[in-house]
């Protein structure tokens, strides 16, 4: 400890090491008037693990654009096959990429360090100079100058840190991940470095990922019925699938729509690089796509996947606890998107896809699937029936799809000649390698099962593969790709169990025939009832598409999950508030909290537990504003333009009612009188409490001005949202207290 009048040693370091294993000294830190102890230990040298990444910045992008713009793509005309054309294009693109974006080493586990500007570096040097001068002279004036400039330096460092954090969050594709990374960085919380722990090798991962589906299906019994027998129940009109030509404009649109991810494929190319030169590569890619469509040959270099293992849970030493993230060539995604659009249009226009499938289809999402299932349950309960549901878990369903069966199904739907040849070429000769902390496995060829992971075509092909399942069931079904639920209803409990057993057997027959494995341990059988007089039917819960349901549909378990997530999000906002600005804090809220509340709100929003969500949402808003727990929140919701949870529910209910207005009965349809309520929707009557949420949309819609009801969906949504932003509601009943005059004034 050094001050003007004395110098004392009051700090100590204790160790059980031998004296030859360490040295100790003091260093000036300029943090306080104490010097720090520096203890140097002799340790074994640690081998640093690293990975190679491209250096992509504005300067390199401009260089890349210039070189790509000067390429003469007429060289592609030399080749008549798609492999030749694409390899020629890829070689030139890869060569320019390597020249423009050189690789650099990024060491894994390297600690984050704030990069200081030149001004900050000079200020830091000046602060150090003042400290050294004060220490040598003991001059009180120098100490005063040192403390003054040290405070300036600390303030500028905070400003720089905020600016860096805001920039990292705003520019991130995954804002939630970026937020938690900054929190861990600022709090000093350790981020697990798998490079320093024993994990499977890249080759071990590759072997496991390649064989997992084979090991699952090898013990399947021989089916008693061939897949073709199930297909015939899907009516087809005999039309053939045709691939119409691609235009450069279509390619440009698809490139712009690709997610701006920073991950690199097997050739070291990512979406950001493609988007930078979209106008120059649209024409050659169009030529390659048309060649693929006309020859029925999918290029081999578009079928190489770079796989990165991602830990799920459990021991990090077991390959089974990792999820394979397959990164396919970026160029293959463009071709797949062109192909997928044409296939989906063919199936939709011919109405081949079953109505119970909601996965990856136009104007459909997971909420639609959830509501489709809940409508059946609520209708059953309304008719005084119990409802039994089987939530089927299919083991590695995407990886187990047999190519030969899928090709026969495509042929049944109208794939013939070159289109069928193209699909066969798409499946065969696929290869993958695993990239694990800089170590790359050998490339292996994949088997004759499974749709390509990480592909655009994969989900669509699985939907086509399972399209004949619902037509071979005698029960109600809901599907979102491989997430399947079977539902039956009956007043008698014993007959209900028989129907559940029959549904399971029908599904099992189809699955066995199509070589898909049902995971009996994870398949859940739950019964829904509206009466508490049947305790034997109550109990149990299930999570379907992210929504937790209990047997009485009270939604308490789901709200528990939401509240837990909001609490974590609120902690993140509060913790990060000091190191970002208010505007960025609002962005963080929308990134990690808003979607938690809004997801599936049409299903659970009428629950009495909504008040718990509302209370926690208020905490999150106060965390954004940095105010006390007693601060009034309604002005804050309006200020930040954030909808309360009940307002989100009101908005979604009103929009759904508006979209389906033509399918609803108006009061004016029941009589010929010109009454004030003639344009109101007739509100259905329900006896069951679980069905009451179905009428809220009609009640909300009826108090809105008639002039709004003539607007298109986008305008209707904008007007109602503005009303709700200016009038935050803490419950649905609050909305009905807004005056008619106030509502009418919104345009």
UniProtKB/TrEMBL annotation:
One annotated GO molecular function? RNA-directed DNA polymerase activity
Q: Does the keyword Transmembrane helix apply?
A: no
What positions belong to coiled-coil segments?
Answer: none
Keywords annotated in UniProt:
Nucleotidyltransferase, RNA-directed DNA polymerase, Transferase
- Which ranges carry the Reverse transcriptase domain? 291-549
- Kindly give the PANTHER family that the UniProt entry links to this protein: REVERSE TRANSCRIPTASE DOMAIN-CONTAINING PROTEIN (PTHR33332)
Q: What is this protein called?
A: Putative rna-directed dna polymerase from transposon bs
Organism (species): Xenopsylla cheopis
